[in-house]
Amino acid sequence: MGGLGPSAGASGGAVAALLVVAIILFGGLAYLAVNHGKLPSMNKAEEAGPVLHAAPEDKSDLGKYKYTVKYPHDPAPKGAPKLRMFFIGDTYTMTNNLPELLEAIAATDKTGPINVQTAMFAMGSTTLGELYEEGSGQGMVRARGWDYVVLQEDSLLPMTISGAGQMYTAIGKWSKDIRYGGGKIIVLETWARKPGSEWYTNAKKYGNLKLGSPEAMQDKIDTAYNGIAYDIGAAIVPAGDYWQACATMQGMPDLYDADGHHPSLAGDYLTALLFYRAVTGHKLNGITYVPEGLTPEAAGALIRCAAYG
After folding, report:
1. Which domains does the chain have, with CATH numbers?
2. Which of 118, 161, 182, 291 is the most buried (most CB within 10 A)?
3. CB 169: neighbour CB atoms within 10 A?
4. pLDDT of residue 244
5. What is the pTM of this model?
6. Rounded to whole angstroms, what are the CA distances from 66 to 89, 126, 203, 273, 293?
7. Do the Cβ atoms of 95 and 89 come closer than 8 Å?
8. Contact yes or no for 273/302 (Cβ under 8 A)
9. CA quadruple 52, 56, 62, 63: dihedral positive or negative?
10. DSSP 8-state class, residue 80
């Protein structure tokens, strides 16, 4: 894969240590062979766009998250391999419409475009367990022949033993339905809160969460996802480790939204690149797609980060 060097101001030892973790985790994706054979045909409703359920009673401000944004791009060439992916999660998946961004990146890969078809089942401020109990998502993953189903859990659950237990139970339930439908399971390893943000500094507001430090929070996230993925035989897209490892590299844009935990467009672009690399095995030297809102220079830095390892 392509190399990536730290900026002159970054600590080489710290960056190297973080990237070793990322490389080890990314190695777990090696067995994910893309099946370019015949896929179940999509009906008209599926062709219309992503399946999106947003809870009307949700207390978070869904209006500020661009979960219906479209990314104009040339379609994948006729005859390009097809790949179907279903995303299940909360606003971390909804913000900037991560599945749609992945579609745009895949369709415009100059060295080997892929026709990625995605759908999303997501609600704001909701855990995977609550989404499973809602019920309608189960049929979606059991009957539609997805190549991959992505599971993204509430980022604060790994902070406690009971929360990690909830993750294990919920992902275990989803995994049975996913395997029934013939899909492979990918868990999206989320990221720690932004260093220096009020999530760490405002003890009155967030002290009860006991987040510690970004490094301690990421370690808890990694431990929970690694253990669960190992037990159920799922793959991991280690977004959190790449976010942490690349944060101080030269030319790297801010990966976080203003709230210090949701992804900015740059953060979602990096995560989408990691997904694309993971499920296709492609190098990223053919990626030229830059969504409106990112500069070519920022996109280049993010591509170099995602290509590392």
Report:
1. 12-38+64-307 (3.40.50.1110)
2. 118
3. 14
4. 96
5. 0.82
6. 15, 18, 30, 19, 13
7. no
8. yes
9. positive
10. P
